[in-house]
Sequence to fold (499 residues):
Amino acid sequence: MRLLSITLLCLHAVLAFDYQAKRAKIMRDESLMSIGGQIELTDKESNVNNCLMQHKFQEVDYGFSNPQYYNFSRHFFSYRNIIPKSKAYKIIRDMPKGGALHIHDMGILSPDYLLNITYMENLYVCFEKRDIKLLFANKTPEAKCHTTWQLMSEARNNSRNVTKFDAALRSHFSICVNNPDVIYPSIKEVWDAFMGYFKRVAPMMTYRPVWEQYFYDALEKFRKDNVMYVEVRSVLINLYELDGTAYDQLITAKTYQKAIKRFMKANPDFIGAKIIYAPARNVDRVKLGEYLQLAYRIKADMPEYFAGFDLVGQEDLGNPLVEFLPQLREAAKDLNYFFHAGETNWYGTLTDENLIDAVLLGAKRIGHAYALPKHPSIVKEILENDIGLEVNVISNSVLALVHDVRNHPLSLFIAQGLPVVLSSDDPGIWEADPLTDDFYVAFVGVASRLADLRLLKQLALNSLKYSALGVKEKDLAIAKFGRQWDDFVNNFDCSRYDQ
Ligand SMILES: *[C@@H]1O[C@H](CO)[C@@H](O)[C@H](O)[C@H]1NC(C)=O
Ligand SMILES: *[C@@H]1O[C@H](CO)[C@@H](O)[C@H](O)[C@H]1NC(C)=O
Ligand SMILES: *[C@@H]1O[C@H](CO)[C@@H](O)[C@H](O)[C@H]1NC(C)=O
Ligand SMILES: *[C@@H]1O[C@H](CO)[C@@H](O)[C@H](O)[C@H]1NC(C)=O
Ligand SMILES: [Zn+2]
Fold:
């Protein structure tokens, strides 16, 4: 009897051990499968990691115990201003992040930058009921205005309080508000505000001297945020001069080339930049044909600066890719595609199905791919063909796809080790950093509590791996990144982040 109970006890222990071993194996397998799971950290990197994780745990664990104060479950606008206080944030800001592969040119720089542009000479303004129009010209514009065009300098001088005047003007250059859940109750209101921004600022920004400087300054801003490579999407609007002369769209593209060359000369540690021609998707086939012709012209003219083609605009309202199949299939042999696809919550719609067409059309990367978890076959294709997924968490939260970022599908992408790159879409319009805010929210708010520096390093490496850089360029880029990474790791001092 006694012997039997001892045997049973042992069996119990063996079974318990077996259970714990299985449990540990599952945890280990999942960790290995996740993005960065295969990376092994050096001693110096572990040193950074310990510091980073200490701060991350503090933030996450405080939220776990006090969910009523947890900020990532709220709207980005409610915690945007306190992010810079986070120590995990500061470490990520100083960390080399590789490249930003999904950004739109007119949405990069801050409202303060745009406000500065309004101090330039020859800018006219038309104040309408709730909106403004802006245009550079050497005489009063003839464009429609429901009130009257006046010189900005005179309007400002005539205002009784310039601080107040500028604050009102600045509010037109951002969609940030104090009460987003009231002002933007659905995707419609926030997209209206978002598109309103582009419509308002485009005529000011496409004045040739402004445009030429803007992109240079945008690259500067990225570099300061420790981002060394950029693939920028552009609608490529025609630039103009004060006398109304308008240039061919190819000139707009060439302006980029000029700015990039000038920037590289001044900053040899920078990796570079390329453009993706990304015009509006709510057009007919004839117009799409014109788009493709322009894409071919740009490619012929500046092949080393041209990454490829995309279509933009609120996906639910524009034409689905399937509408343009014959033309897009034909051009697929010559153009690299980087389609926005699946930026929607509407399961089973044509927008949702854009994911299927993006993959079948041979896209090199997919913009957002927010709806991807609903398409297991496409997940398989993504893995087999190694198609990059450009994830923009803050954009998805601001543009009303997800409220609590813990529910963002990026957590699934990370867990399954999908080819993710993080980007920021239009950070200037919601007053975020060029890239650090997105890395921070993804790392602390979306990824596993246990995800560490290995995830961040792999995401940075992915941004070069899935870039449109050529084979040789890519090797050089990865070498440059390696040097920056080593500098960061070797000079890391945890105590610097203490105060
Ligand atoms: C959340 O944000 C508020 C300000 O918006 C701040 O006072 C608070 O400390 C933050 N909570 C946490 C847990 O960081
Ligand atoms: C705006 O212009 C002022 C004065 O030239 C400058 O100090 C400031 O840095 C500029 N701000 C931005 C955001 O470019
Ligand atoms: C600014 O306004 C004042 C009167 O309000 C006027 O005397 C002055 O000439 C104006 N200056 C400019 C540059 O328009
Ligand atoms: C100008 O407007 C700002 C912001 O509305 C306000 O804080 C300031 O007191 C005003 N200045 C004067 C002189 O009225
Ligand atoms: Zn986008």
